[in-house]
Amino acid sequence: MKWFPVLSLLFWMCAVYITGIYLFVGGFLLVRLEVNRTSSCLDALYPGQELERDFCRGQPRFRKAVLLIIDALKIDFARFDPNNTSPRPYENKLPVLDETLSAKPSHSRLYPFRADPPTTTMQRIKGFTTGSLPTFIDVGNNFASSAILEDNLIQQLGQVGKRVVFMGDDTWENLYPKRFHRSLPFPSFNVKDLHTVDNGILQNIYTTLEGDDWDVLVAHFLGVDHCGHRFGPDHPAMADKLTQMDGVIRSVIRRLQNDTLLVVMGDHGMTDTGDHGGESQKETDAAIFIYSPSPLFQQPQNQLEPEVVPQTDLVPTLALLLGIPIPYSSVGQVLLPLFPPHGQSAVGALSQQEALWINAKQVNRFLETYSSMAKDIPPETLSLLRAQFSHLSSEYITAHQKGLLSSPQLTASLQAYLTSVRDTCRATWAKFNPFKMAAGLVILALACATCLLLSELSLTFIRENGALKSSCIAVMLTGVCVAIAQLLAWGYVEVPWCVAGAALSSELLFIWKAYRTRTVTKTGLKKSASCLSVPKLLTPAVLILLLRCASLLSDSYVIAEGRVITFLVFSLAFYIPVYLNWHGYLLPQIYDSPKPSALLSSPALPPSVVRKEVSTLMASLALVIGSLFLSLFFHGCREEQGLCQPSQFLSPLSRMQDDKLKNLHYILSVSALALYTFLLRSWMRNYGNLNASSITVFTANWILPLSSISLGLHWAVSGTPEDSFKNLSELIGLAQLALPRAAYCLLTAGLLLIWLDPLTVFIKSKTSTQNRLASRLPPRYRASIGISPQAELHHLIPQIYQQMRQSLDDGELSGAGEEDGRPAVEAYGLGTVYSAPLLLFCGMLGIGLLLLHPEGMALAFLLVLLEMGAVLYIHASHCLHKHNMKYSGFNVPWTPVVLWALAATQFFHATGHLPTFPSIQWGAAFVGFPDGHTGTVLPASLVILNTFASYILLAVSCPLLLLWPLVCEVRYSRGERACGDEVEDAVMEIRLRESPQQFSSALLQLSARYLFVHGAQVFASVCAAAILRRHLMVWKVFAPKLMFEASAFIVTSLSMLLGVTFVLRIDSAVTQWFKRLVPDASR
Amino acid sequence: MWDQEIRVMGSCHAILAASILLATGLPAVLVPGFSVYGTHLVWIYSVSATVTGVSAAVFWLFGITPPAKKHTVGYKLSRLFRSCLYFFLSCLFFHTVLVLYGAPLIDSALETFSLAVLLTSLTTLRCLCVLGPNIQAWIRVFSRHGAMSVWDTCLQFTVACSLVGAWLGAFPIPLDWDRPWQVWPVSCSFGATFGFLTGLFAAPTWIHYHRKQLTYKCK
Ligand SMILES: [Zn+2]
Ligand SMILES: [Zn+2]
After folding, report:
1. Among A196, A965, A984, A1033, who pairs with A876 as Cys (CB 3.0-4.6 Å)?
2. Which residues of A fall within a CB distance of 8 Å from B217?
3. Which domain of life is it from (chain A) (predicted)?
4. Which ligand has the shortest distance to the CA of A71?
5. B174–A556: do the CB atoms touch at under 8 Å?
């Protein structure tokens, strides 16, 4: 068995996939750290160092403010063109803005208001209240809930005692729970509903405005946005909606008092189809209209007027106009036209330079804090900015002392500093990197192709063996070349690009090599045995996989993923009997019709055997269908699924109120666990694997049941209500700590022990007469059935080890078996020498993973086991039917592999998980650690193990697909033996050792196929994220799905490597065992 | 001989297709307030009943239905009774399969059962007409070398097309378009009917073009 090419090729494949994912995700998902500090009134941000006065006590420029947010108010909607005689539905519908601008030029301004991507409402609200540039992942301590903890306007307003009244889109209520003085949220989820939110606001806004219990009023209208999503901007409904908004603005302006500021703005724009989320100018350019009943601006518009107002600038401007500190993480710049030049200001109001200086100091402070926390801002830029600031501050202080604060030069340099800080931050956080995304896509697409080639040409690659050395060198060279090119071009090295170059070159090299070997085989040997052909691939299994990948491109299908995947798996399971029947395997051949040549070559089976096999097959099928159906009862619910009720089994016992129900659930879970353990052990006993005295058998006999028992006890303890046994509370606390930890230790020890000594073979040697003659016979292995009465008693399948391979054979080997019909050595459990330890390993792993789940999931885990078993039996009988009881080549066809891989996703859902962040079961981190953790590695890995439990389980057990047809061989051989045929004896898994090359290639092929199925799904969800990055649901559905799919792939590939390595470990152990046995037997 | 069989099949299928169209069109005239979406169950029953009646009549008239072995009334009655029983059992079977595929278990049992009736009348009924109440023969027909006459091949086509059509019909259901035809079981029954019509058209066409390769063993 060649272990090196198998492992290295698989490892390389995984590495290439992961590189692709890494590149794409690096370009698509931007990560920013949240700074959890808040500005306060006492911050020494006031101009001039000597004046340490309270920042908030001064007289603010405005006492009140009204913020009208019209979702998706594009700048095109707000502009008015009097010459346009035939306006489109969205043009010239807000005449109020133009009328005000021309009638009161010193009271009002209209600017384009540029949003930063991602241009989705939630990120934008976060952006123009915190003044920062929110990304998809803002790493803070509130990952599980959506509430904003970063310093923001609403919090600052609350701190100085201003009453904030909110009405409109309920996203605000989720972001700022309980922060408002009064709030009237309306549901925003239904895009088809154009009027609920707006009408709700209109019923309340005017009475609120006329009343006196508010200081800041925020109203968020959604109608325009929903109208865009539903009909697009170019639709009469949009005209109606904008006209309605025109009326709203008019009425609000009429009701304003002199000390009130009105801001009308959009949070983002929209594309021509009415969507948003991306970074095109149509999506980013919203409108902002500022108005005050008292004069606000210098007229006419002077050269300081900005052309475009970035959305971050609203925060410092509003803060300084309302007299509150600028939120800590804001990177905005005050809107200068709203502040008077030095010397012309009213008492208490800030002048332009003062406002800029406060702003610059705040931004500098944030930059210092952030750069001490995160390292994603390039150090060169950072030091440049620092130098700029220190220069500015000295300049400002001298100017301040001399009283020369009105110098336009200083203003300009302060503005330049603020702009460069914002640009730096934007470059770091708020831009998709299209090159990285494209590179990731290309690498992933090629990786899928490569994986397919690898699976089809596995035998060739195993034969070649030495193909890797040259590619390794080439890959290193490319990586280094890319690094040098970068050094020459930019002066610094970006690691992702080096890795990308290496991965890409290795893929291309591989494809070229595959192409060459293919042509060589074609021309040289005239044999197309290992050729790849497209029609051969178009089986229903691959079709189902394609459907699955296509389903990842639609948000509705991703939301309903649990049902969809069950539907697909069910279809595939249903296809198997149809297929078998089509080929005539299901009915005994009663009528003798002309059979195809493949069937003619071998004797037909007697009807009784066929009937028995068919009934087993049907029972397995029923089991698959039953567990598929039952698994639907363990699903959780997404918030988008309105009428869905999450499964009862998902809530832990301790949270259940009804005692009867609690007991019922407990009994169900414990019996499921017991059945799980029992099934594992009885399978091993059935195949004679529990007779040996090895460590693995000890594990199966003692550690497996013990850990199940401690799991059951743990559930009992954690389900006990806390107040029921007061005097035992200490004991319960101890048990809560000790029981799961005992289970952890037992399982870890068990897994390690299996790894150390995976053999479960029991040898029963007999004194044998020496016979040199027999050793001349060609070596072959034989299994006899039911020779020893003791074996019959225990339902054992004794495997007879008769002769060694010729290389080990000294010619002294005993051939006594040939003479007296009794073998020299009987080895119990040799037939399942590979699958028994692997199954035990997976079973123990399953119990460990179950420990991290709520109790009710024991049933789901039992279903996993049953479905796995049933699929294995179906696959085995399918294989043996197809090859007419002789299983050679060991190739696993696509159908079971796809079934296996889709079952992983199916049980991801059936164990209560969902591809959304709020549905992560954080409780898993506290199993056995009720008091929390000190580090982050352990809880994080526990949560990962919990989330991807099904992926781990199915990936580790994947090699069973290769082994199972061999395990099942014995059933058929019994039947054949019964009818008196002279056929070769069943040797089960030992046959793998007869052709090690084919074993390696089959293992490689199986793993490559499994990787391909998962990789194709990752590729599909990457495509979905890339194509639909402007979709309404991208940050709610597609991006989380991508994250989960990518993490699942990484976990799967690691677990699969683990499983394959374990099989190789068993193989080496078997080799050693044979080596030990040869001298014994020959002595 | 081939041409004649294909012609018989073609005319037979034309009658069936026309009857389905009629079953959709006629109630719209006769029954007030009838619409395919709105009163979908009525449509399903109308189509099922028509297909059942017309196929039974046509197959009997053309003499495709296997002749009874005995000509006693009792045997014929028992045959009829068994056919009805199989029809009902097949409805139950399809209902179970639909539920397993994810149809609502309790909420819209009537809708699910109606679809099962439709599927039965499109598939099982044809088996009954062509092969008689003999499940072994049904299973035999759906294998590669199981078809023993042109009608068996045709049966394979129509049954496969109807089932695949119903399967494909399930795909638009999860989409959030809120169209009337996305309501359970409208799209599935449409899919099944369209599949059936496709099968009716495809079977004679395919047989016509492959008549050289087709060889049947006599029964
Ligand atoms: Zn929005
Ligand atoms: Zn929107």
Report:
1. A965
2. 593
3. Eukaryota
4. 1
5. yes
Residue A53 placed within a domain: no
pLDDT band at A1071 (very low <50, low <70, confident <90, very high): confident
* Residue A629, min C-alpha distance to chain B (Å): 6
Phi-psi region of A189 (alpha: psi -120 to 50; beta: other; left: phi over 0): alpha
Centre a 10 Å sphere on the Cβ of residue A527 and count the other Cβ atoms it contains.
9
Kindly state whether residue A790 falls inside one of the protein's structural domains.
no
Total-model pTM:
0.80
Q: Is the domain of A584 the same as that of A503?
A: no
Structure tokens given for A786: 């039911």
Q: Å from B87 to nearest chain A CA?
A: 21
In a domain, A808, yes or no: no
Same structural domain for residues A438 and A570? no
From the CA of A121, the nearest ligand is 1
Residue A1008 forms part of a structural domain: yes
Answer with the one of A379, A409, A430 that is the final residue of a domain.
Answer: A430
| A21 and A103 both lie in a single domain | no
A583 touches chain B (CB under 8 A): yes
Is the CB of residue A375 less than 8 Å away from at least one CB of chain B? no
> Among B140, B141, B164, B217, which would you mutate to test the A interface (most chain A Cβ atoms within 10 Å of its Cβ)?
B140
Contacts of residue A300, Cβ cutoff 8 Å, sequence gap at least 6: A105
Q: Which amino acid does the sequence have at A619?
A: A
Tell me: do A489 and A564 sit in the same domain: no
Among A31-35, A873-877, B89-93, top mean pLDDT goes to: B89-93
Q: What is the mean pLDDT of residues A999-1023?
A: 93
pLDDT at A997: 82
Q: Residue A471 burial by CB count (10 A; 0-12/13-18/19+): exposed, middle or buried?
A: middle
pLDDT band for A841, please (50, 70, 90 cuts): very high
Residue A53, CA distances (Å) to A45, A47, A57, A162 in order: 10, 10, 8, 20
Question: Cβ distance A316 to A332 under 8 Å?
Answer: yes
- How do residues B51-64 score in pLDDT, each as one tens digit? 999 988 888 887 77
Entry field: residues in chain A: 1083
B219 chain-A contacts, CB cut-off 8 A: none
Residues A704 and A843 grouped into a single domain: yes
Give, in order, the Cα–Cα distances in Å from A815 to each of A101, A770, A806, A829, B41: 107, 7, 14, 21, 76
